[in-house]
Each structure stands twice: as C-alpha cells, then as structure tokens.
Amino acid sequence: MTATTAEQQHPISVYLKVWLLLFVLSGFSYMVDFYQVQGYLRWTLILIFMFLKAGLIIAIFMHLAWEKLALIYTILLPTIAILVLIALMAIEADYTFLTRLIYFRFV
C-alpha cells in the first residue's frame, strides 16, 4: 500500500457512526408520526430530519466532505439557488391566491 492510497481510505468507524446517526434520525422522524404531531411543527420537524439525513449521506457516503471546496460549491450553490427560487415562487403564489380571494369576495 502506498502513501497515496493510505490517505484516501477512511476508517470504518466513521461510516458506522454515521449509519447509527442516520438510524437515530430516522427514529426521530418516525416518532413525529407516532406521537401524531400536527401542523407546522410536524412539517418543520420532518424537513429538518430529512435535510440532516440527506446532508450526512452526501457528506460521508458520497465523500463530499473530503472533496475540494470548489467542487462542493459547484454542487451545492446551484441547488441552493434553485431552492431560493422555489421559495420565491411559493411566496408569489400565496400572494396571488390571497389577492384573488380578496378580489372575488368583494366584487
């Protein structure tokens, strides 16, 4: 084994710890349904657990945590830009919907 291959290998304990953390986060996701949490709290918790699990999978199992910063920005910045645009469209859709409700109610 050369010095370059030894640097590229990661200890199995990292993967086992992340796997255990994913298991715990999935348990928390399940508990949101088990305890019948409702409303905005439910969706907030589901989204938080979903993003945490996705981030762990991308960082550790897809080896993004060990990549160069330029590659990380190349992957994450367009994704973040799309999420921002989706949020802006949702805000505009709510505004349009509420405006139509007000207009059709009073006309």
From TrEMBL:
Transmembrane spans: 12-32, 44-64, 70-91
Protein's UniProt keywords contain Transmembrane helix: yes
Keyword Cell division included in the entry's annotation: no
Assigned GO CC terms: plasma membrane
Membrane topology annotation: Multi-pass membrane protein
Signal peptide start-end: none
Localization: Cell membrane
Keyword vocabulary terms for this entry: Cell membrane, Membrane, Transmembrane, Transmembrane helix
One Pfam family this sequence matches: COX4_pro
Protein name: Cytochrome C oxidase subunit IV
